[in-house]
Amino acid sequence: QVQLVESGGGLVQPGGSLRLSCAASGFTFSMYTMRWDRQLPGKQRESVATISSSGDKLTYAASVKGRFTISRDNVKNTVDLQMNSLKPEDTAVYFCVRTLGNYWGQGTQVTVSS
Questions:
Q1: Residue 97 in contact with residue 32, Cβ under 8 Å?
Q2: pLDDT digits (tens, 9 = 90+) for 60-97
């Protein structure tokens, strides 16, 4: 079955960086568009970044553009989110999502605080 396992979250100071990683299994990873979503406290889940199956098309939410970078490795079956210049408002649970079928992992907490 489809499995998505996120890792890399944690506590970081404002201005710092984190790299999230998602390990995918149970499907042909290279055929699917993948996405990172986040759920801020008390708010609805929102899309952060999307990457096409081949990795050539990237889209970002306006709130993270220029700070976050999504990438994938179709050999290792992973999709990463490099987050730089983190702000307190980036504090959220981050989820790896397979867009077709709307599968997502358990999430990883990112807290940006001094």
A1: no
A2: 999 999 999 999 999 999 999 999 999 999 999 999 99
